[in-house]
Design goal:
heterodimer, A: 396 residues, alpha/beta, 20 helices, B: 201 residues, Arc Repressor Mutant, subunit A, 2 domains, five-stranded mixed β-sheet, 7 helices
Chain lengths: 396, 201
Amino acid sequence: MNLMKVNATLLHNEPVRIGFIPLIDCAPFVIAQEKGFFEDEGVNVILSKEASWASIRDKVAFNVLDGAHMLASMPIAASLGIGTIKTAIQTSFTVSHNGNGITVGNVLYDQLQKYSKSSEDVRNGVALKRLIDNREKGEPALRFAIVYPYSSHNYQLRDWMSRAGIDSDTDVNIVVIPPVKMVDALKSGEIDGYCVGEPWNSLAVEQGVGHMLVTGYEIWGSTPEKVFGVNSSWAEQNEPAHLAVIRALETACVWVDDKRNQTELLNILSHPDYLNCTVGQLVYGFGAIKPKGQFDWPMNAYQRFSGREVNQPLPSYALWVMGQMRRWQQLGEVQSLNEVAEQVYRQDLYFKAFGVDVEINHGWRLNKDEESAWLNKVANGVIRLHPDGILKGFDE
Amino acid sequence: MPAAPEKELTVMLVDNEPARAAIVEQAMTDSGYRVIRRLENAKNLTEAVNQYQPDMVIIDIESPDRDMLENMSRLTQDNPRPIVMFAEEDDSRHVEAAIRAGVSAYVVDGVNSGSVKALLQVAIARFREFQALRSELESVKSQLEDRKLIDKAKGLIMKHQQCDEPAAYKALRKLAMDRSQRMTDVARNIISVMELMGDAK
């Protein structure tokens, strides 16, 4: 019965402690556990539900956890010592691409209609810009929420605003609210809009609380969203276990993307140990969002889990994240962008996990003398992501 | 900037566990610190921090509202920053102990690090104490549950085998020893088998 379990010896080793945040994109971790994929790889995993990204970061940094479901920018922030003590955290597996969206409350949506000639104006932020320009002096700034300062949500929201000419530092007030509280905060008027992952956009639409304006996929194209981040010293000392977890996650990602498994997936995810919600709340996060108003259109957050183009760590994305950190005043000088990207987004271990013997492509590397100029161009919005996403690189 | 005198440190406490918050606050007051605000939930947390300007915020590590404070540390230097940023080589053990005890903290730059450490110790001790109390309570609770299960199984055996209580207990214990299972597990099995047979009344 255990013939397939070539790594059965790992089971006798220390368990691997992995943290996750109850969001749809923790699915690969939950499925790898529930469907026995970790066990099939011979690794004993203890999943631990965490309440905040800060908690994930601190516990991985101080070895209370070995690794975790992380925002793709977190290992970079930790390795650079941004917002925390400098700790080597790395990733060799991207868990998901996309899944974010920007939603505004009904009150703001109704106001936006007055400033738009077509749905396009609402979608690209032009209506919001006109509304902000026409606000009375002394009126409190609109409040938008994100889930964490070092996140794609923060960067995508600010990028979207900046393209419409909105200064996200002065024209609006950006606050942090935990994802589970977003819809309520929108409903109570505590905030006017937010950028968050699914299902919190589709839920607001379904509950008639707000309208989704644009998806993260429309803003940036396909980009990494969550990764499996690990403490680098743990990874160094436990390579077989690390690679086994990566293989199990890959199997889980394929399983999660298979439409035939959706009913079972939703049932498992909704369990109190995981997302602790109803299947009905989750199902919207996996489908197209239906228009509910005159200026709405059908949308899909385009969340993806499987395939090498999704799972492979992309150091070019690490560069892009550092560009965003610089753009929004989180990052000062960096010794070497290339080095950080290479040390944090470890492609070599991804290939090693699957026994793939390939020449690693270093085409993403920046010209050594132009690193600093490149960073400034990203910060000024001159260099952008290719409209299709990070796999196609950058446009200038 | 001169270091703040040790006893002047002001603290804001955020904990949705009112009993624990009360214990921690009392301990801090006893140690001579001033808890200027105790919040049970994080509604308007950032506003409260802005308004009261505490030197240190202590918050349950399992609170989803921690990420709100993370954003504050970016805005200005005067706002509290996560304690982990202050974990220099020599005192990283304190921070690790705090994380393990479930305490997280945010500290304003320039505050006397000795006071911060001392205060953290108070919080860690109380959090641990509370955790110990809670697990004790849980273990008492589960012992009670175990007792109930065993009593129920005993009753079923007595009824089924038409024997007295000591005999039923002996049978149960023997079964547990033979199978090297816990008495409760055997009791649970017996109850479910009897239920299956429609006999568990």
